[in-house]
Amino acid sequence: MTIAAAEARALDLAAGFLDAIRDGSLDAPGVTRASYGAGERLAHARAREAAEGLGLEIRVDPIGTLSMTLPGTDRSLPAGIIGSHADSVPHGGNFDGAAGVAMGLAVAARLRHLDRRLDRDLTVLAIRAEEMVWFPANYLGSRAAFGLLPREAPDTLRRADSGRSLAEHMAEEGFDPDFIRQGRASLDAARIAWFLEPHIEQGPVLVEAGLPAGIVTGIRGSLRHRNCRAIGQDAHAGGAPRRNRRDAVIAAARLVAGLDDLWTAEEAAGADLVCTIGEFCTDATRHAPTRVPGEVRFTLDIRSEDVATLARAEAWLAQAATEAQARNGVAIDYGPALHVPPALMDPRLRAALGAAAAEAGIPTMPIASGGGHDCATFAGQGVPSAMLFIRNDGGSHNPAEAMEMDDFAAAFRIAAGAVERFG
Description:
This protein is of the alpha+beta class. The chain is built from 13 helices and 19 strands. The model has no long low-confidence stretch (mean pLDDT 97).
């Protein structure tokens, strides 16, 4: 079979998989594939059917991770892995995560149709439970596969929509929560040569640049505070003079404006940084047009590829709290901090992706990943890891996701060429 014919058949398989899981998980206005739920189950079943059609070796671990392997010529070597997750947010788009599973199947199909084998096994991975909206744990499925979840997680984590435990949902899907309770692992970093996660871009950078694909430099780490409070004192809007006010809104607004100034300065200096105030509100049971607000609740999400940049932002927050107390008499309580370290992508793998793109004549750009991905789990375990972003209009985590199959095809040619270079 010619390369062109093999690639056409591989892309048809990927498109068919994506169409099938969309049709099977429609939940207007988007799709819903809940972690350890019906939609995720369907996506794994369709992936398995495609893999069986290619004659791949199939394995499902006790937590539901689906491994689909094309044997290499030397099976003693650590395997190469390509894949992503198959769950989605509620009423989300069809491509977040699933495009990476489709890409893995397409790369394996191309090799199979060309009757080629890599030196090492190539495993296409469909990972469980990546979307944190369902269970309150980062990268639940990949961390569980590496044995990294707390042993009590099956019994303490509850799914947002049902209120039922992870253990109950796992058992309902035919999996074994004792695997996590016992601290067992199905993935061994020492037996993984590399991990590649293709994924749609979740922002507009590639669309703005007019490029079909981007080579990820790293996954931003984050500093998150979900329960911030600016605590002042309620007062009468007409009776309290300025000098006596402890206005929580004024103090919190100054903090937000100052954070934006910090972001501007860091960006001008060449630092990678993004800052988000996702929630900002007074108490609906207490606020009124004639009351000086004594409390504001807000959230903070600060991300960067660079640990030093995150540290500077954290120091700035401490100083801003001191200034709010001195200037406005308002205490800033950020509440607990959640630190997630950055995950930098492997330089050798990035170079191989770049070389494959150049050979295929496909323009790309380096790009940071603002969202978290299972790839961060692999990188954190010392596995050489890489990500390939696919242009996607309309953003992510919403029904407007609009990855074009022409862009998928361009990224597929990069991924297929890079996998043969990874060694």
